[in-house]
Design goal:
Elements lengths: L4 H21 L5 H20 L12 H19 L5 H21 L16 H20 L17 H20 L2
Helix pairs in contact: 1-2, 1-6, 2-4, 2-6, 3-4, 5-6
């Protein structure tokens, strides 16, 4: 590592690549997959933008409330969509976590010090989100294990379920990394 900014840049690259693949998945012939990919692309690019190390770029004070509003709106959309599919509950938790992190960053006295550890322990909501995403990452990792006898037919890149699962896993890992810095 070349300093404290290196993990941040790795997280930026991971999340941006995941967001880019999710944009590719939006070309799928399956409508539900297209909708999910759009929300996941927003999460990937939003996580990439929020993970830029403060030494490289300190966003203006108004950026964090804007992030909170965007992800708050995405959380409301996920809440509405959760009526039809349980999968959207995970999107609700993810977008809610992003809105929460943006609100914490907006309330911090200095963006450069927002990533510094300290304080009187882990807040309850942060701890709960850490537990949720730890479980999600472990479960997503298990789902990537190959199944005996499962021969896949030729599928377009935008319809590859194992790549979509790997993207979800990487975003879960990214979410854990971001929550650990709060």
């Amino acid at each position: 590592m070349h300093g404290p900014a290196s993990p941040g840049w790795l997280l930026v690259a991971l999340c941006a690549a995941t967001g880019a693949y999710c944009l590719l998945r939006m070309r799928s012939g399956v409508e539900e997959q297209r909708r999910a990919a759009g929300g996941e692309a927003l999460m990937g690019f939003g996580m990439a933008a929020m993970a830029v190390p403060p030494a490289a770029f300190t966003p203006p004070a108004w950026a964090w409330p804007v992030y909170a509003a965007v992800f708050g709106a995405a959380a409301l959309r996920a809440l509405w969509a959760a009526r039809a599919s349980v999968h959207h509950l995970h999107h609700l938790v993810g977008t809610g976590a992003m809105a929460y992190m943006a609100a914490v960053m907006a309330a911090s006295p200095s963006p450069a010090h927002a990533h510094a550890p300290g304080g009187s322990g882990v807040p309850l909501l942060t701890g709960t989100l850490l537990l949720y995403f730890t479980g999600y990452v472990l479960l997503s990792g298990v789902r990537l294990l190959p199944v005996a006898g499962a021969a896949g037919a030729a599928v377009a890149w935008s319809d590859r379920p194992e790549v979509a699962r790997a993207c979800r896993l990487s975003m879960g890992i990214g979410m854990l990394a971001m929550l650990l810095t709060i």
